[in-house]
Design a protein that fits this description.
heterodimer, A: alpha+beta, Alpha-Beta Plaits, 2 domains, five-stranded antiparallel β-sheet, four-stranded antiparallel β-sheet, 9 strands, 29% helix, B: alpha/beta, Rossmann fold, six-stranded parallel β-sheet, 22 helices
């Protein structure tokens, strides 16, 4: 099963390396990874998309918690918002194609962020399924390149990733 | 004050008395500062010897072992030892020099990405970029290494940081918001555990290396409840090997009684162990009758990792046992003990006597001659298992071996580290001819510091454990295991180092040989030429279960009592 996990970390050098090295060593399956700083200086937040059974996911969470620089791990099973940003460069040969692509763009509420003679870059934000469908819809027109950021996630409501909540770390 | 002096001062503040190490270019500023320090430095002949010695120092003393090495090759020679310490949860702090900051990443002379390489085999590591960070990093490293589930921590310090002027403060606070080990077990879970034990008909208590420091509480708890006790290889000594409640070691070369007890147990209380595959065999067939497994471990990631756990207790073995003692009651286990007694009497550990000198009788002779009062270290292989079987230590921190990683060559450096940690003790390294040759350069360290360690080489002229597997599972195709054609004369080798060398070849000379080793004033290397076709039994083949246990060599079966 697919899980989205948020990890709050101290933004020390190599902390990302520790996490990817852990996934490689333990044989966990990492589908995507997104990382960025937070509003708190010194803290970064990582979103991981991981697939595996319950036992694997329990181990993923526990092994992440063993890392000294990991402050908090949450598996988003509760209501949450999930978004991914995607850029697609699509080939458009003539006016007809350009119009057809424009229809898809509007249907998905994507934006055109670059226009050239033979191509367009479209930007789409949405959950991963929506991004998948968007890419599939554009495929017949000739996709030149795709860049996805990987999913980022946040719990709905007042729940947050708090620093002092990490339990049972070793 | 330079960074190097600040480093040594920070180490002194952690109470460090001994550092094992080997100098080199990038760590020279620290070695220069060491010249004026009160910390004792033990110069080893290979960094691997240093890290193993530091590991044994930690295991024998319960304190943090410290090893130091230079950049690149020096640091990389620590890798095996760090992995060994990590697998066996041993607190070690490794300090390595690195090339100056400006050269990092340029493929400079003796440069290696040591923090990168050691990331998966250390509990944590640091690359110190700012000289004023040294006190905090050292303090955190020792804290992380020694608390929670202990493990190795590496501190990599570029040469120019060692040389930089230190203007910082030694009074620093730990800054580890993500590191808060749970040490006290949950009271509700402890209550549930006691309840399950009380209702059990065939309960057992299994303990591992995580209970070495809880030996006192363990003994009281076992005696109060009357539970049968099984100690893993890492747990040997945590419970006395001469106690009537002790069933021995479980797993691949464990006792029949211990493995059958696990197989038939309905409730298992496991403390400070991680259900290694050498203990469980095939997990799906492990403890098939256990409806309740209670797992006490300080590392939550170990709970549920291998076996299904019904009552998880995250906490320190000692604190949890203390709590459990409050509610512990004598259990009614007379029927269960009758079964256990039968297995124990019917299948004691034994060997089939041969005309040749045999490893088992050599180890047994040392056990009898010393009354078991020694710290035993071993290499890895048949001799290690024979030592575990026939030298049942009675005290904690007294059987120092490589469990998880199975590192050949640890015997001699382990003996060195153990002797420095507990100089008043008799230290015996039971070693194999194969294992011993992996680190024998440390005989020079033995000489340099006049360390009274007794090295007992059980020389069968083969890589015995590999040979045993080839014998049993590879149709006797003895591929690349023969050593006798090229082994040195170990006694003369010892003499070349100025160490007393002894050789015993015949059965009738065994007692005399043992006496000579034990009565010698100072270190000894004693070679016992033992029977080469010996196998370690009982044996559960890899991936098997308790029911698949081979009690004697299949070809000798008809010769033993029915």
């Amino acid at each position: 099963m697919r899980h989205v996990i948020s990890v709050l970390v101290q933004d020390h050098p190599r902390v990302l390396n520790r996490i990817t090295s852990l996934f490689a060593r333990r044989g966990f399956n990492l589908e995507s990874l997104a990382v960025g700083t937070t509003h708190v200086p010194g803290l970064s937040r990582i979103s991981l998309v991981v697939s595996g059974d319950d036992h694997t996911l329990e181990q993923v969470e526990k092994q992440l918690n063993r890392l000294i620089e990991v402050l908090k791990v949450t598996d988003h099973s509760e209501p949450h918002v999930e978004r991914e940003l995607c850029l697609v460069k699509v080939h458009v040969a003539g006016v007809e194609e350009r119009l057809a692509v424009k229809d898809i763009q509007e249907a998905f509420r994507a934006r055109v962020v670059d226009v050239a003679q033979q191509s367009l870059i479209l930007e789409l934000t949405g959950d991963s399924k929506k991004v998948d469908s968007f890419i599939e819809a554009l495929r017949p027109y000739g996709i030149l390149e795709v860049m996805r950021t990987g999913a980022v996630a946040m719990s709905r409501g007042e729940r947050t990733l708090k620093v002092r909540e990490k339990r049972e770390a070793v | 004050m330079k960074g190097a002096e600040a480093l040594l001062k920070a180490l002194e503040r952690e109470g460090v008395e001994v550092i094992f190490g080997h100098p080199g270019g990038a760590i020279m500023p620290t070695y220069d500062a060491l010249y004026d320090s009160n910390i004792r430095h033990i110069l080893v002949r290979h960094e691997q010897g240093g890290v193993h010695a530091a590991t044994a120092y930690a295991r024998a003393s319960g304190r943090v072992g410290v090893v130091m090495a230079t950049s690149g090759p020096g640091a990389l020679n620590l890798v095996t030892g760090l992995a060994d310490a990590y697998m066996d949860s041993t607190p070690v702090v490794a300090i390595t020099g690195n090339v100056p900051r400006a050269l990092i990443g340029t493929d400079a002379f003796q440069e290696a990405d040591v923090t990168g390489v050691t990331m998966p085999i250390t509990k944590h590591n640091y690359l110190v970029q700012d000289v004023n960070e040294i006190p905090r990093v050292v303090k955190e490293a020792f804290h992380i290494a020694a608390t929670g589930r202990p493990g190795p921590v590496l501190i990599d310090i570029p040469k120019d940081v060692q040389l930089a002027e230190f203007t910082g403060d030694f009074e620093v606070a730990l800054d580890l918001p993500g590191y808060k080990p749970t040490t006290k077990g949950h009271p509700k879970q402890i209550e549930r555990a006691l309840d399950a034990l009380e209702k059990a008909e065939r309960p057992i208590l299994m303990v591992g290396g995580g209970a070495q420091h809880a030996h006192g509480e363990l003994l009281t708890f076992a005696e109060k409840t009357g539970l049968p006790v099984i100690t893993t290889l890492m747990g040997l000594g945590a419970f006395p090997g001469n106690h009537p409640l002790w069933l021995g070691m479980p797993g691949m070369h464990g006792t029949v009684a211990a493995n059958r007890a696990i197989h038939h147990a309905d409730v298992i209380l496991a403390i400070g162990l991680r259900f290694d595959d050498r203990v469980t065999g095939k997990v799906s067939r492990f403890a098939p009758h256990a409806h309740t497994i209670i797992h006490v471990d300080i590392d939550p990631a170990e709970i549920g990792k291998v076996v299904r756990t019904h009552i998880p207790i995250v906490g320190d073995a000692r604190l949890v046992l203390k709590e459990m003692l409050k509610g512990a009651k004598p259990l009614r286990l007379a029927g269960w003990w009758r079964e256990l007694e039968e297995w124990r009497t019917r299948y004691p550990l034994r060997w089939k006597p041969k005309p040749h000198l045999q490893s088992q009788e050599v180890i047994r002779a040392f056990f009898e001659a010393t009354g078991g009062n020694a710290i035993v270290t071993t290499g890895v292989g048949q001799h290690q298992m024979f030592a575990a079987q026939f030298f049942p230590v009675t005290r904690p921190r007294s059987f120092i071996t490589s469990g998880g990683l199975g590192t050949m060559g640890v015997g001699l450096p382990f003996a060195i580290g153990a002797k420095l940690a507990r100089p008043e003790e008799l230290v015996i390294d039971f070693d194999g001819d194969g294992s011993f040759q992996m680190t024998l350069q440390e005989l020079a360290t033995v000489v340099k510091y006049g360390l009274d360690v007794k090295v007992v080489i059980l020389n069968n002229g083969y890589l015995g454990m590999v040979r045993q597997w080839q014998d049993l599972f590879h149709a006797k195709r003895y591929s690349e295991v023969y050593l006798a054609d090229s082994n040195p004369d170990f006694a003369r080798l010892a003499e070349a180092y100025g160490i007393r060398g002894i050789r015993v070849e015949r059965k009738e000379d065994l007692r005399k040989g043992v006496e000579a080793v034990l009565n010698a004033d100072g270190p000894v290397v004693a070679e016992f030429k033992v029977y080469h076709e010996e196998g370690v039994f009982p044996m559960i083949p890899a991936g098997g279960a308790a029911e698949d246990m081979i009690i004697e060599h299949p070809e000798e079966k008809e010769e033993v009592e029915a």
